[in-house]
Amino acid sequence: MSENSLYDLVIVGGGPGGLSAGIYAMRAALKTVLVEKGVAGGQVTMSDEVENYPGFSHISGAELSMKFAEHAQACDLEVVSDEVTAIEPGLEYHTVRLAGGVVYSTHAVILATGGSPRKLGIPGEDDYYGKGVSYCAVCDGFFFRDKTVMVVGGGDTATEEALYLAKIARKVYIAHRRDAFRASMILQKRVEADCNIEVLWNTVLTEVKADDSGVCGAGLKDTQTGEERSMDLDGVFIFIGFDPNNELVPAGIKKNADGYVVTDEKCETQIPGIFVIGDLREKYARQIVVSAGDGCTAALAAAHLVEMKRSPADVCEAPPSMLE
Ligand code: NAP
Predict the structure, then answer these.
(1) How many domains, the chain?
(2) Which domain holds residue 149?
């Protein structure tokens, strides 16, 4: 790892978007480093099954992530395990500061920090996290074999995770605040057909209840009648969407009302050379394939920008085949 040195491109985040950007950047001969604070792969590593990434009719999220990481490694992408603490835009170079003290100067930055699971904000949710409250069925489902669990939410994630838990738990309830799912039709049909799953329509959680051994139930409220009741449960899995991880987005970059970054068609923000991709970017569909596509777009745009900025003597000519 080169410390305090000049890069063409610094990528922040090692999910499908960041790794795809890394693959395209290496093929465009950019001096690139990818910084990831956790495990490379991102949010998709938590998915039990991925069935809509072209070329793979069925693959686990962990395996698909591993394939992305292996592909990036085969392109000799430098991956650094550290936390980025600040991105400071500059006229000539941007500065990227790492928790470990390393400082990079770079022509371009691609931010691919994704999002984090949204919380309900109800009593008991934080207190019993890891003791029956979970945001990841693949990570924690194992502990609920033959038990009764509740999934909260009505989107793709909630229904997918409920289907996963239904293979392990004795009974899965889905509590959804409306009377119709937001999830794709294929997932809705699978939920309907799974006799281990019961949907509680127009239902919200008001409280997570626990005893000495962890979660033991939840307070529920009917959103139509206002009627309240309690239910005995062993676990509560919450999948009510994501909030963008936008803490590193420099001031002055436009975000929408929900905190997602607004970019142009090159995934570039209002600050030249700062790109935002994947789930952090405002977009219609938050899918793995879209994040990967964003990574390609931003890396090619960064390559063009770097080529324009480099002095003619510095230009490293990539063979045409590398840019295809
Ligand atoms: P989402 O689509 O935003 O759905 C969130 C769900 O949680 C909605 O049903 C919403 O209810 C409910 N909700 C939100 N806040 C709530 C609250 N405070 N209390 C109770 N319920 C609440 O989120 P997601 O399911 O995590 O999906 C995020 C994105 O990833 C989507 O674009 C999705 O298509 C994509 N995704 C795709 C796949 C796949 O294709 N295999 C898998 C997972 C995720 P309302 O419906 O009433 O708003």
Answers:
(1) 2
(2) 119-238
For residue 311, name the pLDDT band (cuts at 50, 70, 90): low
Same domain, 8 and 101: yes
Instruction: Report pLDDT for 92.
Output: 93
The reply to whether ligand 1 has any atom less than 6 angstroms from the CB of 155 is yes
Query: Which residue has the least CA distance to atom 32 on ligand 1?
Result: 286
**What distance in angstroms lies between residue 241's CA and the mean position of ligand 1's atoms?**
4
Ligand 1 site-directed mutation target among 201, 208, 240, 258, most atoms within 8 Å of CB:
240
175 and 87 within one domain: no
213 and 287 belong to one structural domain: no
Output the pTM of the full model. Answer: 0.80
Measured CA distances, 150 to 21, 29, 224, 225 (Å): 37, 49, 20, 21
pLDDT at 135 over 60: yes
Q: Whose CA is nearest to atom 18 of ligand 1?
A: 120
Cα–Cα dist 294/298, whole Å: 6
Q: Is 117 in the pocket of ligand 1 (CB under 6 A)?
A: no
200 and 275 belong to one structural domain: no
Active site residues: 136, 139-140
Any ligand 1 atom below 6 A from CB of 85 = no
pLDDT digits (tens, 9 = 90+) for 249-301: 999 999 999 999 999 999 999 999 999 999 999 999 888 999 999 999 999 99
Burial of 73-85, coded b for 16+ CB within 10 Å and e otherwise, reads: eeeebbbbeeebe
* CATH number, domain containing residue 124: 3.50.50.60
CB of 158 within 6 A of ligand 1: the answer is yes
* 213 CA from centroid of ligand 1 (Å): 30
Identify the burial level of 142 via C-beta atoms within 10 angstroms of its C-beta, where 0-12 means exposed, 13-18 middle and 19 or more buried: exposed
**What is the phi/psi pair of residue 150, to 5°?**
-120, 135
